[in-house]
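Just scan my protein:

——
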Amino acid sequence: MPAAPLRIVLAQIDLLVGDIPGNAERLAQAAATARDDMAADLVLFPELSLTGYPPEDLLLRPSLDLRVDEALARLREVRGITLVFGLPERARDGGLLNAAWAMRDGEVLVRYAKHELPNSQVFDERRYFVPGERPSVFEQQGVRIGLTICEDIWHRAPARAARAAGAELLLNLNASPFHAGKPVERHQVVSARCAETGLPVVYCNLVGGQDELIFDGGSFAMQADGGVALQAPVMEEGLFPLVFDAAAKRFLPAGQAVLPGLEESVYRALVLAVRDYVNKSGFKGVVLGLSGGIDSALTLAVAVDALGPERVRAVMMPYRYTAEISLEDAEAEARTLGVHYSVLSIAPMVEAFSETLAETFAGLGKDKTEENLQARSRGVLLMAISNKLGYLVLTTGNKSEMSVGYATLYGDMAGGFDVLKDVPKTLVFRLCEWRNAQSPDSPPIPQRVIDRPPSAELAPDQKDEDSLPPYPVLDEILRRYIEDDESASTIIAAGFDAATVQRVLRLVDLNEYKRRQAAIGPRITRRGFGKDRRYPIVNGWRIGN
């Protein structure tokens, strides 16, 4: 008789870091659904699915092993389906393993420890784990299945070792964070492993926001010849069934979600990041300052798409330099999206501060101090609303501004989550155009907000480009310096004005102290500020080669 097909379900789920019992219950329920509703023989979960990813120093807590053991007791109750899931496992020598278990009817069929522990960019796995060294293969319905975990698939040795141990199919548990273009990179890497080993691969990825990281899902199954048999959607939870023909050593064709383009993928990533950060942290909703400018308009749209208009409050806080057009546009944005909107003038506060400081500032001319007083007055109002209502303050600074310090500490930087922190200004414009195109009859961002020259409106006739290079130039210099680590001399050699490059890079370096005090925000580029880029605030490094 021909071997029965192997029915696999990819559990692309959103887990809460540190909620070990809650995550175990999620796994048990997903396994039951896969078994009962999809007739699955095996359900595959993401990396470290018991703890969520990344658990960071929670892995150092004394009660970790006890909590994991209690969660495993719950999973041992699941019957009639094989669970392949990730967990931290204590090795015999006391070290900690980033492990995967295959378990059926309470019995552990095989254990695997991650071989390749990433320790760059946003990863710190060598801080916590010791590497595994052996392949792990188990048999299900006549198919010999090898296990790998996330980074393992980006290297040749683990997959080859699994093949040498007899594997006919590879399962890869993942917690692979998003950046623009990452889904395509994953396909390329897995395709290379398939070509090298001649094995088909099932790639199951985590989905959800965790602090500054976004896990985009996008799980897939790839045939040995590199063809994609299943492509799960990005930024969505779900259980995705797959059938493996044991005789043909191929997957039967399954669903094919379309991978979105740049603007859609980034926008949806921001929505997911806001939704998870707010909901997992227990906030009632969000509040933000709505200036009539493009950054706050985009932030408002993202917040509404993430949480619904009933959980979003927008506050316009005008001063004498606020243009009438800004007042009109802010009101139009709030009205279109249906959020609670209020107008609170900061004039009384600014004047009170100025009067209080008049003697201290006697004989000194006006400068950035007076501009910053305006921004800080707005910050005080937003934080007061946050405290009183239990709403998280969303800040609205973009990556271009945060890079060069074009923001006010304890002013427009005051808040808990910066939605655009890793979004360059040029991409802000593109995201606004994309979002408007999704609602052509009622675009949330007035076109003239997109068309107007950006301004902080802290001084008469102020424009961003009075203080900064044009954004297309600025963003390309910043990309080369921050994301690609190019030196000043390399950037200048690429055709950029030397004085401009020196000035921009100097601003980036000088403003590290501001960024250390800034709200976190979702990472959408290859290198954001936070886990990705760790530079000393005080240092003697000189810009040059």
The chain is about 35% helix and 20% strand. The first strand starts at residue 6 and ends at 12. Residues 264-464 form a domain with the Rossmann fold fold (CATH 3.40.50.620).
